[in-house]
Predict the 3D structure of the following.
Amino acid sequence: MTRSQQRNVILLGAPGAGKGTQAERMRDRFSLPHISTGDMLRAAVARGTEMGLAAKKLMDAGALVSDDVVVGIVRDRLAEADAAEGFLLDGFPRTLDQAESLDETLAAAGRAVTDVILLDVPEGELVDRLAGRRLCRSCGKPHHVTYSPPAVDGQCDDCAGELYQRDDDNEATVSNRLDVYRRQTEPLVDYYADRGVLRRVESSGLTPDEVFAAIEKILDRQASA
C-alpha cells in the first residue's frame, strides 16, 4: 500500500458516542491497528506507574491528561511497524494543540490524516448511555442497564464476571466530561472540516450495526475516490 492509499483514520465523538464499539469493528473490517489512548492510559493505571497514578487522578475527575504525556505515547505508537500502512486513532487528538502536533508528526513522515469519522449524538442521549453503562471486570464486555441489560443482574452475559460502573461514568463526572469535550475537543470538528477530511455520522437512535454500515460506506467510498 502506497502512502497515497493509506487509511489514516481518527474516530471522533463525545464520551458515550460509541467510539469503542465502532473502533473494534473498523479494526477488523479494514485491518487497521486500533490505537486507543484511553486503553494505553488505563494500562498504565493498572500497572501503578508514576504516569498511571497521575493520569488516574485526572481521569477519575473527568479531566484530560496533559498533552506532552499523550502526544509522546501516540508518537511512539505510530512509529511501530503495524501502523506503517494505516491506523485508527480513538481518543486522540482531544485538543487543537494535539491535532496540530499529530499533523506535524505525520507530515515529517510524509503522511496525513485521511478521514475523521464524527459520531454525532445529542447530549441528553450521551448522559443516558454513560450513566447506565456497566463493564465486566473479567473480559471488559460492556452492558447497559437500559439498552443491553445482562440476563442476570450484575453478571456478564459472556463470562459471568462481575459488572461494575467505571469511576468516571457516574452522573456528576459524566456532566464534567461532556463539558470538557465541548470546550476542548468539539473545536476539532471545524478544524478537520476545514481540511476536508471530516465525515459526519448522525448516529442518534441507530443500532451499532447501522452506525457501522454508515462508516463502512464512507470509508469504502473514500478509498475508491
In short: The chain has a mean pLDDT of 88. The beta strands are 7-12, 34-36, 86-90, 115-120, 133-136, 142-144, 163-164, 198-202. The chain is about 50% helix and 15% strand. The longest helix spans residues 208-224.
